[in-house]
Amino acid sequence: MLAELAPTADTQLSRVAAAIAEPARARMLCCLMDGHARTSTELSVVAEVSPSTASTHLGKLKDLHLVALVSQGKHRYYRLASGDVATALEALLVLAGTPRSVFVPATPGKLRHARTCYDHIAGALGVALGDRILAHGWLQPDAADPSAYALSANGEQMFQSLGIDVAGTRQLRRRFACACLDWSERRPHIGGALGAALLQLSLRRGWVLQDLDSRALSTTALGQRELQATFDLAPNAHG
User: Fold this and answer.
1) DSSP string, 63-95
2) Does the pLDDT at position 192 exceed 70?
3) Is residue 101 part of a domain?
4) Which of 3, 33, 37, 155 fits a disulfide with 77 by CB distance 3.0 to 4.6 angstroms?
C-alpha cells in the first residue's frame, strides 16, 4: 500500500514545491503570511507582475490548495488556504533567513479603529472582538458552512447575560452569525444578526459612540474598561 501511495505523494510534493519556487508566487504567499486577505490587483503589485499574470498565478495556487478565494459582495480576496500552509511557509522562511515585510493598512486611522459595516462593528475593534469571542468558544465555525458561526451553550449564556435576546435574534430573517471580511484589517469580524445585536448593545451601554457625519465609532472610557472586563480585550484593541 505504501509503495502505491509514495509516487502520488512525491508527485504532489514536487508540484507544490514548484508552485512556491516561482518568485512571483513566492512573493504573493509571503505577503499573505500576516493573515490579511488581498485582492488579485494588490497581489500583482506585490509580485511585480501584470494583473492578468497574477490571476494565472493565483489560479495555480488555488488549484494546489495553497490559497483560498473569499468573496465579499462584489469584491474577491485571496488568503492562505490553511494554517498548515502558513506553518510550511514559516519553516521555509526560517531556512531562507530573510524577514518578511509587515502589512501597513492605508485606511484613515479613525475609520480603521472602529466603524459600522452596515449594522455591525468593523475595523480593528470589530476584528478584536470577533477574535476574543471565538477564543472563548462562545462562537464556533459552523461545519456545514465555513463562512458561518454556530453558537455554543456557553456563548448563549454569555450573550443572554449581556442582555441580547438570543432566541429573538435567531428568528430574524437573516444569517444568525457569519464571518464578514473587514476591508481595512483584511480579517473577519462578526456580521449577521448577532453582529448587529452586539453593535446595538455597545451603543446602548455607552461602550462606543457613533459619529454624526461618518461611519466612525469611538470607544468611551467606560467602553474601554467594560470591553476589557467582558471580552478579555487587550487595552490597545480599543484605542
Assistant:
1) HTTSEEEEEETTEEEEEES-HHHHHHHHHHHHH
2) yes
3) no
4) 37
- On whether both 116 and 161 belong to a single domain, the answer is yes
Distance CA 27, CA 92 (A): 13
The mean pLDDT value for 65-84 works out to: 87
Question: Is residue 205 located within the same domain as residue 233?
Answer: yes
Q: Which among 96, 118, 144 is the end of a domain?
A: 96
> For 36-71, how does the pLDDT look when each residue is reduced to its tens digit (9 = 90+)?
788 999 999 989 999 999 999 999 999 999 999 988
Q: Nearest 10 degrees: CA dihedral of 122, 157, 193, 163?
A: -80
Rounded distance between C-alpha atoms, residue 215 and residue 198, angstroms: 16
Contacts of 19 (CB under 8 A, 6+ apart): 25, 60, 61, 64, 66
Report the CATH number at residue 13.
1.10.10.10
DSSP label at 12?
Answer: H
Q: Are residues 43 and 139 in the same domain?
A: no
**Are 133 and 229 within one domain?**
yes
Task: Give residues with Cβ within 8 angstroms of 214, minimum separation 6.
Answer: 110, 111, 115
Domain boundary among 46, 65, 96: 96
Average confidence (pLDDT) over 176-189: 87
pLDDT in tens, 92-134: 877 777 665 665 666 667 788 999 888 899 899 999 999 999 9
Q: Do 124 and 222 form a contact (C-beta atoms < 8 A)?
A: no
